[in-house]
Design goal:
The complex is a heterodimer of chains A (312) and B (236). Helix content of chain A is 35%, strand content 30%. Chain A is an alpha/beta fold. Chain A has two domains: 2-221, P-loop containing nucleotide triphosphate hydrolases (Rossmann fold, 3-Layer(aba) Sandwich); 224-296, 2-Layer Sandwich (Alpha-Beta Plaits), CATH 3.30.70.260. In chain A, strand 7, helix 6 and strand 8 (183-188) form a beta-alpha-beta unit. In chain B, helix 3 runs parallel beside helix 8, helix 4 packs parallel to helix 8 and helix 8 packs antiparallel against helix 11 (195-203). The longest helix of chain B has 28 residues, at 127-154. Classes of the chains: A alpha/beta (312), B mainly alpha (236).
Chain lengths: 312, 236
């Protein structure tokens, strides 16, 4: 659906996107992650043909974004960062305007208009000026104009910024629904959003792709050393001595006495092992009481931080 | 074409959604009417030449005021990003905005025809000269407006767009009034560049293709610059 080959973009002499290549298949909901200034927005602007690449080739549905940009633009619904809208127009006027700019409006398109207004939860505000709306409603208006022509590809740059938690969940569900038949690119740095909606994650840092895969693939490839946190009572000192010898336990990273005879212990485990059962057995043999045991998995957040931290 | 009209209609309507159109039209009509009538009864001749002179002067300020926000405001709000990613070509956007502003000014100009009625009471004004005068004004407006759109594309700041447009327009306005300071052959070129020189030719009632071509190519040139300016974002 979207193919990016050796894309490079300079702003003057500053390198924004550094020779990246990837493909996006139809029906993918792609979480496009990266810290601020990593090149997400630049890449998206090139796909939407707002900017031209310095070198490389980008095609959408086999149309080149530079030479056949009108064909590309017809297939894309785009919500730029911060949802820039005409503040002096009212909601319904604006959506109608965008609809007729995007396509020949026929008599059946009134239905589409109603449908999109319903989907985006705009029923109550259609006659209000966009300038009077809250940030959350503006985002929804932005989303509505991006969906109005029922595009095959939706590109949403931080669509949930400024929304309250309920609205965020609504929008996420909407994106998930859309992703069943459409291709969605979701730029964000909110990680739970990606875990909740995306079936593919692409992490970009300083203009380069640093990770690419499904959320679970990324998690398993980065799982490495897991962490187990336990809390025990009774015979703590002898337990700590023995636990270091349990197969799969790499080392004790921290242990702390909370009160007399009550310890918190953090263990690092060897990659690919799960020593929780052995730890439980050890407690029993040692006459210690296991109050708590929790394995902490590597979250996308950890991966993100690990990959995008600037090396100093 | 359809999209140009959709865009033009939106732009035109947005002039009337805000007080801009009303304020600008009122001030324009007040100043032109006052200036015109204050000398009309001194000369007591039934012609609109005086009105046309005044209007051409007011247009120096009036056109930049109408055109300044057309593109700069889109850049400031960021809406240009959405506009430029619609399935519309950049030149269609420029033309759409140009037409919207053009319509607003043509309507304002037509409102000044009320003075033609006044003058008719004084005597028999020359209808041909009046019509060619209005034709000349409409062409001049086109040139000024294309300059205004060009400067509006250059900056995010409406005030800067206004001042730049005023300066460029003023140069074209003033040239034929200062050519006596230049040697003959340069003067000839400068005179040909002047908007007023061509206006005077047309308003005399002689609609020469050279003058029409001058106006149309000026309009084309500055609209072309505006489109180029907008497109240059892609390579920055």
């Amino acid at each position: 659906m979207i193919s990016i080959q050796n894309l490079t973009k300079y702003y003057g002499t500053a390198l924004a996107v550094d020779n990246i290549s990837f493909e996006i298949e139809k029906g993918t909901v792609l979480g496009f992650l990266g810290p601020n200034g990593a090149g997400k927005t630049t890449t998206v602007r090139i796909i939407t043909s707002y900017l031209s690449p310095s070198s490389g080739r980008v095609t959408v549905d086999n149309f080149d974004v530079q030479t056949e940009s009108l064909e590309v633009r017809r297939r894309i619904g785009y919500l730029p960062e911060n949802a820039p809208l005409y503040l002096d127009m009212n909601v319904i006027e604006y959506i109608k305007f965008m609809q007729s700019m995007r396509m020949e409006v026929s008599s059946t398109d009134g239905r589409r208009l109603k449908e999109v207004i319903g989907l985006c939860g705009l029923d109550g505000v259609i006659h209000k000026n966009i300038g009077e709306l809250s940030k959350g409603y503006r985002q929804r208006v932005g989303l509505a104009q991006a969906m109005i022509h029922d595009p095959e590809i939706l590109i949403l740059d931080e669509p949930t910024a400024g929304l309250d938690p309920n609205q965020i969940i609504e929008i996420r569900n909407l994106i998930k629904e859309l992703g069943e038949e459409k291709t969605v690119i979701l730029c964000t740095h909110i990680l739970p959003e990606v875990e909740a909606t995306c079936n593919r994650v692409l992490i970009i840092s300083e203009g380069k792709i640093v990770a690419d895969g499904t959320p679970s693939q990324l998690q398993s490839s980065f799982e490495g050393r897991g962490t187990i946190v336990i809390q025990i009572k009774n015979n703590c000192e002898s337990f700590i001595e023995k636990v270091a010898g349990v197969p799969g336990v790499e080392r004790i990273t921290a242990s702390g006495k909370i009160t007399e005879g009550l310890f918190n212990i953090s263990l690092e485990t060897v990659k690919g092992t799960d020593p929780r059962e052995d730890i439980f057995n050890l407690c029993r043999d040692n006459d210690s009481v296991l109050l708590e045991m929790k394995r902490e998995e590597t979250s996308l957040e950890d991966i993100f931080r690990k990959l995008t931290r600037k090396e100093s | 074409m359809r999209q140009i009209m959709v865009l033009a209609r939106r732009e035109f309507k947005s002039y009337f959604d805000s007080p801009v159109a009303y304020v600008v039209m009122t001030i324009f009509l007040l100043i032109s009417g006052w200036q015109f009538s204050s000398t009309l009864f001194l000369t007591n001749t039934p012609e609109l030449r005086g009105l046309f002179n005044i209007i051409r002067f007011i247009l120096l300020f009036f056109i930049p005021a109408v055109s300044m926000r057309l593109i700069s405001e889109e850049r400031r709000l960021g809406t240009i990003e959405l506009l430029m990613t619609l399935p519309v070509r950049d030149w269609q956007i420029v033309i759409g905005k140009f037409l919207a502003a053009y319509m607003l000014i043509i309507i304002t100009l037509l409102l000044t025809m009320i003075h033609f009625v006044t003058v008719s009471f004084l005597g028999d004004p020359d209808i041909g000269a009046t019509l060619s005068g209005y034709l000349g004004l409409i062409l001049i407006v086109g040139v000024y407006l294309s300059i205004g759109i060009f400067t509006s594309a250059l900056t995010q700041n409406q005030i800067v767009a206004f001042i730049l447009a005023f300066v460029i327009i003023f140069v074209f306005y003033i040239i034929d009034k200062i050519i006596i300071f230049f040697p003959g052959f340069i003067a000839g070129i400068l005179e040909f560049l002047s908007t007023d020189y061509h206006f005077n030719n047309i308003s005399r009632g002689v609609v020469d293709s050279r003058d029409i071509i001058y106006f149309l190519s000026m309009i084309f040139f500055f609209l072309f610059l505006a489109v180029q300016t907008i497109e240059s974002r892609k390579w920055k």
